[in-house]
Amino acid sequence: MAAINKPSGYSVTQVALHWTIAALVLLQLFYHEPMEIAFETRMTGETGGDPRLHIIVGLAILALALWRLVLRLRHGVPPKPAEEPAILAALANGVHAIFYILLFAMPLSGLAAWFGGAEAAANAHSVMRLLFLALIGLHVLGALGQHFVFKTNVLKRMLKPQT
């Protein structure tokens, strides 16, 4: 299932999935209060808050992340820039691996918390939110560093799909 040849850029679908998932994740990270209220009131037997948008968007992220992972495994990703220091390449690989873990773990822990009433899952979900925010900051800094410091095409590859 793994790609044999590395493409020179990302496909239109890969770029669209990247930015769609990014937008949905940011929506979830910054618009989570109604879900928190709904969860807290549900755990006490009361009603309040509206979880629907958060649940629907979380499920969409899960489905899109699965699609993106399948594309990554089938078609591959462009090679790392030759001029990139080995330590930064390793850091980028680690950041991407953690992103994929979070893209699956966040929705699954949210589902376990909401539908299973698992408070431990809710706590893990909250911790992962903070990790996601830090990781996004690191990812943005890395992309900007690639563009402005190392003068690579890493950022451009995710802005303009390979045709």
List keywords for this structure.
163 residues; Cytochrome b; cell membrane; 6 helices; mainly alpha; Cytochrome_b561_oxidase
Written account of the structure:
- The protein has 163 residues and is mostly helical.
- It has one domain (12-159).
- Helix content is 74%, strand content 0%.
- It contains 6 helices and no strands.
- Helix 1 runs antiparallel to helix 3 (52-75).
Class derived from helix and strand content:
mainly alpha
* Major sheet characteristics: none
Strand content: under 5%
Number of domains: 1
Net shape: elongated
Please state the CA-atom Rg, rounded to the nearest Å.
Answer: 18 Å
Total strands: 0
Q: What order do the helices and strands follow?
A: HHHHHH
Oligomer: single chain
Describe the secondary-structure layout.
Elements: H1 12-30, H2 33-43, H3 52-75, H4 86-116, H5 119-148, H6 154-159
Helix pairs in contact: 1-3, 3-4, 4-5
Question: What's this model, at a glance?
Answer:
The protein has 163 residues and is mainly α.
